[in-house]
Amino acid sequence: MTRPRPAIPSATSSAAAFLTSRRGLFTGASGLVLLAACGTDDTSTAGGGGDASTGPLPISAIPDQDPEALNRLYGLVADRFADATGLEVTYTSVTEYPAVVRGFEVGDIFVSWMGGLTGVQAAQRVEGATAFAQRDIDATFTSLFIATRASGLAPFDDIDGLTGLAGHTFTFGSDTSTSGRLMPQDFMEQAGLSLDDLSGEPGFSGSHDATIEAVAAGSFEVGAVNSQVWDATVDAGEVDLSDVVVLFRTPEFFDYHWLARPDLDEVYGAGTLDAIKKLLFGLDASEPDDAAILDLFGATSFVPTENANYDAIRDVADRLGLLA
User: Fold this and answer.
1) Cross-strand partners of 90
2) Pick from 204, 233, 249: which residue ends a domain?
3) In 173-198, which positions are buried (b, 16+ CB within 10 angstroms) versus exposed (e)?
4) Of 305, 30, 264, whose CA–CA distance to 126 is shortest?
5) Nearest CA-CA partner of 313 in 95, 65, 131
6) Which residues in 131-170 are b (16+ Cβ under 10 Å) and which e?
7) Quick check: 182 and 64 in contact, CB under 8 A?
C-alpha cells in the first residue's frame, strides 16, 4: 500500500537535518528530509513485512545529546529494527526537539524515542499514538541541579534549597526537555523560586551535555541536567569535578519512552509494532550485540509502558503552557 507523506515545512527546524540509515549518511537542506527509496524486497521475515512500495520505516529521537553519539546509537537501533521487522529502517536525525514532534504529527516519523514532554505533545497531536516501551530507569527518573564551584553554592537535600539559586545565572537544556527544563522548573516553582528571581533570563543550552559544558566553563553558574547523562559524563571522565558540584537530585518522575503512530501496522504491515516490542523487551545485557545498545541507552533492559504513565508530565506541561 502506498501512503503519500507530506513534507515538513522548513520552519520546523532552524538547522540542517540528516539521515542515517543502513545504507549510509544522507544530508538535507532543512527540517526533516525523508529518504525517497524503496523498502526491502524481503517481506517474508517475522514482523511487519509491509509492501515494498511503502518505502523505508522512518524512526527518530529527540536530540538530547551530542549528534555523533546519537548517530552511533540509532544506527544500531535502525539495523536491529530492520532485522526484527523485515523492513528497511531509516533514522531521521533532527537538531531541535519540536522537529521530532512535528515529524511524528505529519507522518514523516512512525516510531520515535521521546522525552516525557515531547511524547505527551506528540500523543496530543496524533490521536491513538501509543507509548509502548521505556528503559528500566525511566519510571524513576531524576534531574540534577549542578553548579560551578565558583558560584559558592553548596549541595542541599531538600527541595526548599532551590530558593538559594536566586540571584544566580541559570541554564536549562532544550526548552521542551522533560528532565532539562519541564520538571526542574516545576520543582523550582514548588520551592517558591520564580524564574524572575534568577540573575537575568534563563539560558537554553539545547542539550544535556551542552548544559554540563556551559556550567563547567562558567558561562552559567547553575544548570538543570538529566541525571543519566550526568552520570555517563562523569563515568567517561568528561567533566572536571573540581569545577562542577551537584547541588540537588530531584524527586522521581516518568520520562523517556518509545512512541508509535496508530497507523504503523496499517502502513508497514500487521505485526510491525509487535516485532519491535519483541526485539526491545528481548534485549539481553549478557549478549554482546544487545549489550552495546543497552549500554548506549544507559539501561539494563526495556520494559512495557503506557500513555497513562505520563499524565503527571501532561499536567505540569499544561500548567507551564508547553502543550501548544
Assistant:
1) 21, 58
2) 249
3) bbbbbbbbbbbbbbbbeebebeeeeb
4) 264
5) 131
6) bbbbbebbeebbbbbbbbbebebeeeeebebbebbeebbb
7) no
Q: For residue 199, is it within any domain? A: yes
**Furthest C-alpha separation in the chain:** 63
Beta bridge partners of 19: 26, 92
Residue 286, in any domain of the structure: yes
Q: Which amino acid is at 267?
A: V
pLDDT per position as a tens digit, 99-152: 999 999 999 999 999 999 999 999 999 999 999 999 999 999 999 999 999 999
Residue with cell string 503552557: 321
In DSSP terms, which residues pair with 259 in a beta bridge?
A: 112, 131
Residue 96: exposure state from Cβ atoms within 10 A (0-12, 13-18, ≥19): buried
Sheet with 143-148, side-by-side order of all strands = 203-204, 170-172, 222-226, 143-148, 244-249
Q: Write down how long the chain is.
A: 324
> The domain containing residue 232 runs over which residues?
142-249
Residue 29, CA atoms < 13 Å, CB-side half-sphere: 5
Tell which of 207, 224, 249 closes a domain: 249
202/56 same-domain check? no
pLDDT (0 to 100) of residue 10? 29
Q: Which stretches of 108-197 are assigned E, i.e. beta strand?
A: 111-114, 130-135, 143-148, 170-172
Cα 303 to Cα 88: distance, rounded to the nearest angstrom = 25
Residue 321 has a CB neighbour count (10 Å cut-off) of: 7
Question: In terms of domains, do 22 and 134 share one?
Answer: yes
Residue 284 is assigned to a structural domain of this protein: yes
Asked, for residue 4, whether it belongs to a domain, the answer is: no
Q: Are residues 64 and 120 in the same domain?
A: yes
List the grid coordinates of 174.
Answer: 532544550
Same domain? 108 vs 38: yes
* Global pTM value: 0.79
Distance CA 185, CA 190 (A): 9
Averaged over successive runs of 10 residues, the pLDDT of the chain (324 residues) comes to 35 32 30 33 43 82 89 95 97 94 97 97 97 97 97 97 98 95 97 97 95 97 96 93 96 97 98 98 96 94 98 94 82
